[in-house]
Structure formats: structure tokens, C-alpha cells
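Many introductory courses stop at the sequence. We go one step further.
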Amino acid sequence: MQAPRQIAAVIRKYLRNELTEAEEATLQQWLDADPARKSYLNSVIEGDGLLDDLRLYHTLWGKDHGDARMVRIHQRIHQGLSQQSVPSKIYRPLKWLPYAAAVLIAVSATAYFFLDDPVVEQQIAVVNAEAIVPGGNRATLTFANGQTIDLSAEQGGIVVGDGVTYLDGTEILDDKQAVRKESLASGVSYLLSLATPKGGIYQVTLPDGTNVWLNAASTLKYPSQFDDKERVVELAGEAYFEVKPTPMSQPFKVVTPGQTVQVLGTHFNISAYPDDPETKTTLVAGKVKVSLAGSRQKSASDSRLRPADYVLRPGEQAINRGAQIQIVDVNTDQYTAWRSGRFSFNGKPFDQIMKEMGRWYNFTVRYEGDIPPDRFLGDAYRTDNLGTVLQFLETSNIRYRVEQASADSYLLIISNGKEATKP
């Protein structure tokens, strides 16, 4: 079987009257393998389907560029195409077959025949940002034996106790999963993992009554039962914690790469995404102790040396950059706005805003030129579609376009001060 890319190249050369004898034999063999291939190649040479291809071309290039090209190519096709058929043997097409029409026909034929082939030339599809909807309640729960459950999007969270239920008391595990139900209720502690994808958010009530809200693209690992000495969970990504107070003999600890946060009963937010250079611990209420590598650290506000274990006060944030920690005073709402369904832009670098939005709408960013230096004020609602949220860019002459990256993800192309052009 010929590779799809090889056949696509042969078809293009056939339509340009450039086939060698060997390529002619290859194309003939490919056509003889399936009568539908001859029929389809005949239909596109006669002109059927070309208008659909032109509409695709118009979409890929955008309205301004596409309109003019569509008119010109449409005229050339209707001036040049003749009523010719594909016989049982290959003959070269007329030399005046327009080049642009040949390219479009090759694209159409390739897409038609190769949908089920392992290698496909993917076309770039420009997407209307207004059509990209926000994330929602999406998460998976993984048990110690590796089995995973897709949690209901109609529910907002789960409760871990003698078993695992949704917040409204509905059972997560059905009768077919009785073994796992018995294990959770057996008194033996098992490791559980709650994970949200990009565009997902979910809540979990831990065995001690602590509530945790996971932001998008985050994972929380925790035991089905805590022991009497300490309560330890592991976080990758971002989460907001409301820790249930317990005696000092049973502290609550959140472990992230590079640090451990010890809690006695408090509300706080930790952002520890793997693709961020910093881990930020923001204290809303209560008291936490941040333990970092190194014996002594320097405060951001003065030159005094701080111990490696630093106790945060409400309104303070510990920024861990690996070898150093910085303690700053912050407006906590700016770092916890996601919990109330908002993006907070206030004073954040542009690339940080794009990262936060990308995790929610499942897009990655490519910059054409420098990253815009602009800083913004205000909020946006996470319940709005992407196009509505991106309206803030209009105030700074920042242009963008959105392309389809995969079935459920996107590429946002940012251009500072000019229209985002096609690559």
C-alpha cells in the first residue's frame, strides 16, 4: 500500500501534467485498487466539489484575503476546466489546467481518500473565538490499583469518607465496583488521585472534612483515610484549600515540588504548575508555615534574613523560585478569583494571563513578535466564551487569531500591534 503522502504528491503532479512513467504506474495501480477512486477523481476534474474546496480556502485565509482569492480562482476554474473523464488508463491532464485549481483538487482528493489512513496531512483550520466555550466540572478519580472513573459533569465535587460519593450523596461506585467500595470502607487507607484536565474544575471533601477546589490541569493525591499523626496531600497545579482545624498534633501538609506547606486550620491558595517557574502560596485567613530548601532566606520587603521555615500572615504570599523565596503583601482576591468564577487581570504580566486562560479554554499560545508588555486592570468571567473574554485585547491594539490544534484544543496566535497573519 502506498503511503498517503506519496499518493497525494503523485495526484498533484498528475494534475500539473508532470508525472514520470514510474509515477504514472503508481497512480494507475492506486486507482485500480478501488473503483471509487476513479469516480471521485473524475468528479473533481469535472468541477464537482471545487466550490466546497474554495470555501475551505476562504476559511483558512480569512475574510479579507479569502474573498479576493476566491473570486480570482473561481473565474480561472470556470474559464479553464473542460468536461474530461478519467478513463481506465491514466492520461495526462490538459496543460492549461489552472495551478490553483490543481492544488485545490489535490487537497480535496487527499482528504476524501485518506481519512482512515494512518498518516494525514492536517489542514490548518481557523476558528471563531466566539465558538470556544468555557470549561466546566470535569475530573477523573484514580484508585491505587490504577482504575480510573470519569466523574459526572453534572456534579460539582466528591466526598471521601467511608466511601466516595458526590456532594449530593449520590454513589460514585456502582454495584459492579463493589470490591472498591468494600476496600474504602474496610478501614485500610488507600491512595486516591483527583485530576482535572484543561478546561476542568472540581471539588473534593477530604476524610477530615477539609474542602479543596482544584483548578484546571491540576492533580491532588490524598489517602482515603488520614492517620493520627498528620494529614498529607500532594498537589501539582493549583488548588484552594479550606482546612478543617484539628489539634496541633495532627497538622495538615500540602507537598508540592520544592516546598511543603504546613497548616493548622486556614484558607489559602497554592499555584504550583509544572510549566510555571514559581510556586505561589497565598494566605487568605489563618496561618501556614512554608518550608523551603536552604537554611536562610531574604525577605522581599527588607534585607533581614528569614528562616527557611516561614509563617505567613493573612494577605501575604510566599513565592518559591527554587533556590530563593520572596515574601510579598498581595491582594488575595487577585489569586483566588478563579474560585468565584473570574479571571483577575490586575497587574499580571501578559503571558501569565494567557497561561491562566489557556488552561481553562484549552489553548496554547504562540507569539508573532515580542510578548506584549501591556498590563491590564479588571476581571472577566470564566463562564463567558473565549471571544468575549479576549475583547480586552482591543484596548491595546493586540491582534489575535485562533486555529484548531486538535479535536478539543486550540492555538491562540498573538500579534502585538498588527493583524495576526497566517504562517
